[in-house]
Amino acid sequence: MNKLYIFLKYFFIVVWTVFVVAPFLWALTTSFKDFQSVNGGVTYIPWVDFEPNLEGWKVLIKSPAKGGVDIIEPYFNSLFVTCTASLISIILGTLSAYALSRYTFKAGFVKNNDITFFFISQRIMPPIVLSIPFFLFLSSINLLDSLTGLIVVYIVLLMPIAVWIMVDFFNKVPREIDETALIDGCNPYQAFLKVVLPNSIPGLIVAGMFCIIFGWIDFFFAFILTFTEVQLLPVKIVALNSSVTPWWSLSASALVSVAPLIIVAFIVERYLSKGNLSGAIK
Amino acid sequence: MDLVANNLSYKPDDQYHLNEVSFNFKEGNLYTILGRTLSGKTTLLKTIAGLITPDSGEIEFDGKNFLKVPVWDRNVAMVYQQFINYPHLNVFENIAFPLKQRKIDQSIINEKVMDALKSVGLVGYEKRKIQELSGGQQQRVSLARSLVKNAKILLLDEPLVNLDYKLREQLREEFKNLFSKGLADETILIYSTTDPRETMELNGEVIVLDEGKVLQVGPAKEIFENPNSLKVAEISNDPPMNIIEAKISDNQIRFEGIDVEAPQHLSKLTEDGLKIGLRSSDIELNKNGHEFEVELAEISGSETLLHLKRGDTKIIVSIEEVLNFKIHDKVKINFKIDRAYAFHADGKLASSPFGGLNG
Q1: Is the domain covering B3-235 a CATH 3.40.50.300 domain?
Q2: Are A187 and B72 in contact (CB under 8 A)?
Q3: Domain housing A41
Q4: Residue B297 pLDDT more than 60?
Q5: Are residues A93 and A43 in the same domain?
């Protein structure tokens, strides 16, 4: 029984690992192939199965004039827009989540839960519904095809995630901790900054991670709201596709675009295992 | 510097949490707020701390309107029944937190924190994380944090209730020592509890609270000897005082076919609906006594609690030894009737063996 359990455990771990890692390996090998190696049947091992070359990668950094696509600028655009929008969303979202968790709001029949739901409802609407108002809104304030415009739109999309996660998190932080801080001489702002926030780091990290992921992978709004001045990475990658599908550079760009998320995931994993709230209340 | 409250009321929902509560607390004294759970004890303490603003009423401290002072300027300290500490700080930083907040010199902070650690017996634990401490130690940290401030008002909200039996005994001893050590010279100490025994041991001025209302105020001994109503008698005894519906006539207390000779302080009460109150410790097993049926027998510590029944009358007897009984066993008991109380039909005290409202 025990042996069977161990066998099954490792069996499923191996299967899952293969399932997760194989696509990456495949993309990695493909990115070093040329036209012939891709279309010449199934090949995996460089120098044995096929002759690796750097064409797929070179295309990504060559300027369009030299037949490349130059994803460097879109890459940094994407980084900038995602990070700025995530940061602002986390700050605004955390503040509103704290207010929603600790204070009672009432406007007619609208109460705290309704306000929280209003935030989440922004994510329930299909993006296509939002695209027209966003387009008209940005064009009326002259922010179409600009980084600022994209950041504004992304904040609308990301802040609900931050509010949603942080309201739930703050609800789990005992109110008595805030009260003790007040009794110990903090005003409400100090109580929030010195006591509640340091104990909410795991929540902030989770919220931040979700914001970064959703911001980074967005294609739809980047596609609708930008034209020529500004381009984001997902749009640029799709634009790679021409009459001949360039599998090698597509694979290379896929790897580059997934890299920041992997780095974020590793950092986050470290922090998440560290922080916990036990000891606040027993 | 006195803490005076007038007609404090607080009704956040359809129930009163505080109902016309008034008191006059003097510095250097210990006040115990005794009441069952949800009786408004915590609400009262939070109102004094400033965490709750009452709907009506006034609080004055040192002659000034206390309600206008925000929590963080009130110079109160509070220990919660849950062990509240700052989980992101270690023991030393936790205790130093209120001092740092006042921007006091680091060397003075160090000195004061060490003193506080000494008085709660946690020297050597400065660098520990809060999560690494046991419940009792965590509660000591929060006690130290409230002591270090030299607050004028120290609020302790059922500080022992979440601890196990042994720790509770030990910490209670330490509390008594701390309170008697002159800590309380300029401090108003307010201690809330559900435990009558704790109340008697602390031996301060007692405020009995129920459903947000003050039922009785007086020294612990007075509350114990002369509870002014059935409710107070119930709240201030554990197990609750036995209440027996009885009739007194011809110098006899009669109930469930039992006749007991009425002691002098009860003999003149002949009204209808009279209720006789008798503590569970004032009933003893006796071979020549009256027969009752055992409904339940629990052994708690070194005593046995017998839940007995005869007709419609149910009583609890506590016996100072461990005895085994089966359900439906018959036992014979005797009443120490000269220690019985009598209450009017409306619950007010009619007569007590200690001379309250005699006859």
Answers
A1: yes
A2: yes
A3: 2-53
A4: yes
A5: no
Give me the helices (H) in chain A, please.
Answer: 2-31, 35-39, 55-61, 72-102, 112-124, 127-140, 147-172, 175-183, 188-190, 201-217, 220-225, 233-239, 247-274
Angstrom CA distances, B279 to A142, B63, B310, B338, stand at 83, 43, 17, 12
Q: State the nearest Cα–Cα gap between B130 and chain A, in angstroms.
A: 6
Would you state the pLDDT for residue A31?
87
Q: Any bridge partners for residue B30, and if so which?
A: B189
Domain count across chain A: 2
Count of pairs with CB atoms under 8 A, one residue in A, one in B: 81
Please, which residues 185-224 of chain A have a Cβ atom closer than 8 Å to chain B?
A: 185-187, 190, 195, 198-199
Report residue B341 as tokens.
Answer: 């109380």
The predicted model scores a pTM of 0.82
In the numeric block, the tokens 């097993």 are attached to B285
Interface test with A, best of B66, B71, B134 (most A CBs within 10 A): B71
In a domain, A62, yes or no: no
Q: Does B86 touch chain A (CB under 8 A)?
A: yes
Task: List, in sequence order, every residue forming a beta bridge with B304; answer none if it has no partner.
Answer: B299, B319
pLDDT in tens, A76-135: 999 999 999 999 999 999 999 999 999 989 888 888 999 999 888 888 888 888 899 999
Whether B71 and A183 have beta carbons less than 8 Å apart is answered as yes
How far A111 CA sits from the closest chain B CA (Å)? Answer: 16
pLDDT given at position B356: 64
Is B162–A282 a contact, with Cβ atoms under 8 angstroms apart? yes
Q: Where are the domains of chain B?
A: 3-235, 242-351
B101-159 per-position pLDDT tens digit: 999 999 999 999 998 898 888 889 999 999 889 888 898 899 899 989 888 899 999 98
Same domain? A250 vs A116: yes
**Does B56 or A45 have the greater pLDDT score?**
B56
Residue type, A240: L
Q: Which CATH class is domain B242-351?
A: mainly beta
